[in-house]
User: Fold this.
Amino acid sequence: MLILLVASLVIGASAEDQDWFPVQRDVDIEYDLEATPLEIQTNSTLDSKHEVRVNFYSSEGDVAGGVVFNFTNATQYYIDLCSTSPIEFQTDLPSKVDKVWRISLIKSSGVRLVIHCNDVEALNTLLSDSTCGQSDWSTSWDRDVAKIQFGSSDDASDFYRPKPRWTAVQNNATIDFDLESTPLEIKTDSTLGSSDEVWLYFRNSEEDGAGGILLDFSSTPQYYLDYCSTSPTDFPVTLPSVPDRLWRITLTKSSGIRLMIHCNDVEVLNILISASTCGLIFGASTGTEM
Assistant:
């Protein structure tokens, strides 16, 4: 499929399409954590007493820190060689059992550890003498992380991967993309009321029109389906209030033509495109194979 993009945003293949690797315990993995955040999949429930344990090492094999997540009655974290005991996350974590944890290590100004859970920031702490109970924390955490290892006590981590990279959008550029096999994810930071727009035009391999989508950042956010809508329509649900949004566009044709849009993992549109849902004459353009 070909997509013609006309918008100022950042785009990438769906995170679901990026390769995940099965976790093996007590195996060193070459990994530059400062250059690329680490993502981990879990499906452990609260009170399961499962734990995620990731150890960090330097290129020489010296300990360079580590993190632990405990699935007790309240999910807790422990910063290896810093914490003196597990600490409850101060942010309400997503309730979904299936979670993707993202661990980021930033050393541009001090040693900062950032943890996201299903794209919700769960921890953002600057390691220091005041935040670490262990006085010699910097001995390990000042080392450059070159390897990671899932510890033998880790019984929660299922899969891991490097955080997927994004590709900057070029306006009016045509991109080969099979939307039916891979959902499309788009990053935006436009505020409501800005009147910014995301325009995606869909084309088949012969470059015939095959649909398209407009996302309109008016004070009341709206969408428009090319070759279907007669005018922009308000989203049927309230969008997440944060300006940084991750949109996922999914097109399925297993039983009719169904378009789904998620915003920060919230389903904001799920529509079966048909003569009854389209104001325009439903014809070849929307039905074209992509």
